[in-house]
Each structure stands twice: as structure tokens, then as C-alpha cells.
Predict the structure of L-cystine-binding protein tcyA.
Amino acid sequence: MKKIVKYSSLAALGLIAAGVLAACSGGAKKEGEAASKKEIIVATNGSPKPFIYEENGELTGYEIEVVRAIFKDSDKYDVKFEKTEWSGVFAGLDADRYNMAVNNLSYTKERAEKYLYAAPIAQNPNVLVVKKDDSSIKSLADIGGKSTEVVQATTSAKQLEAYNAEHPDNPTILNYTKADFQQIMVRLSDGQFDYKIFDKIGVETVIKNQGLDNLKVIELPSDQQPYVYPLLAKGQDELKSFVDKRIQELYKDGTLEKLSKQFFGDTYLPAEADIK
């Protein structure tokens, strides 16, 4: 009888030990799986709303949630957002500190030579914004001698710098600032300068949310598709293939449209042919 009890005790200890080893083995596997994922650092300067903004201390907005959807349930990548100044977005891509960036980024030839463009995720044409009581500005042909505020190295800043190079006898007056777009729009409403060129979605959102009813929007012609793109550092070809494929999937399953309606209030998506 004593032998049976002894054997049973040893068997029980063996089972416990086996269970502990199995648990340790399982834990090590999970840790190994997590460690094998590559961390993708996505840079942004945190504006403009509704593309990117902070809510309760957390980044959100259309582009942020699209990126989260792109990497959701990936067994290869983990995504992390890092907020920086506008110039720091590009400096970080150049230095391989960031893998990717989202910041309401449009296409330019200069950027295409330095970075990789993923498939477009939104359509967002530029517009001209002026005060309703200002009848002197009706199109880009009227901005000579008028003033505006721009952030250095942005698409609109480069566009207006090119305008001045073409119109040296009557250039537009460029006041460079580090203010965010909401602050710039409030100053335009207060009459501190004459006009602003920016994207339609951002403009309409700020006018509505800030109650800037004394401003009006003038549509501008465009010689290229006014799309918004995620940007990737050079050499991130494998990551670009993954991102492009996921954007196509999110377009087809309705996720992009759902997020567009949630953050923009309507569907502002690229043509399906342009994301293939």
C-alpha cells in the first residue's frame, strides 16, 4: 500500500513538472513570436484635423486609423506613432529613424525622387480661402501683392514660391510660420493676412469647428490627382508592398469608406483604378 502511495505521489509530481515546463515553453514561444515582429515607426506632426489630431492624449484621425487598420492583426509588423515637427518628419525618413510618415501628404516630383509613395488613401483638392467681404481675390491670378502665411517646405509654400519666381514684378507676400493650420485660419479670419491655400477637407473642417463663418472657399483647378498618400523611406520596398496590398483590401472591404465618412463626413476616396 505504501508503494502505491509513493508511486502516485511521484506521478503527480511528474505531471506538475511537465505542466510547468509546458507553460514555460508556451510562454517562451509567445515571447519569441512578439520579438520576431518588426516595429514600424510612423512619423507625423499631429495635424491637421481631421486627418490627424490628438484626443484625450492619443493620436487619432483618418490617417492614423487607416494606418492602424493596415497593420491590424499583422503577424510580421507592429506599428508605433511618433509625433515630431513638420521638418522632422522628412529628416527622420532621411536618417532611417522613421519607416513611414502620414501628414496629409500630397504628391510632388521632389518627394518622389527621395521617398516611396504608397497607394493613395484619400482625395483632397486644394482650395483658396479668403474673407467673404474681400472681392479683390477671386482666383490665383489675383494673389500678386496679397499676403498669406505658410509653413516652410509644405506643398502650398513651394507652390507659392514657384509663383513668385514666375511673377517677380508682382509677387505674393509670404509670411513663414510654425503655427498649426487652425491657428493660421483664425488669423486669416481676423484679417492678419489676405488669403490661404490649403486642402478642401481641412479648410471646411476648421471653418465649421472654429465657427469662422466670415471665410469663403474658392475651388482651384488642378493638373494632377489631388490625393493624400502615406510616404515611406527609401529602401522600404517590402513594407510598401505590404501597405499597398492592405490599402487595396481596405478599399474593397469598405473600411476606407467607413473611416472617410466617420472623419470627413462624406466619401473622399481615390478612384479604385489609382490604388492598384
Q: What stands out?
A: The chain has nine helices and 13 strands. The domain at 126-219 is CATH 3.40.190.10 (D-Maltodextrin-Binding Protein; domain 2). The first strand starts at residue 38 and ends at 44.
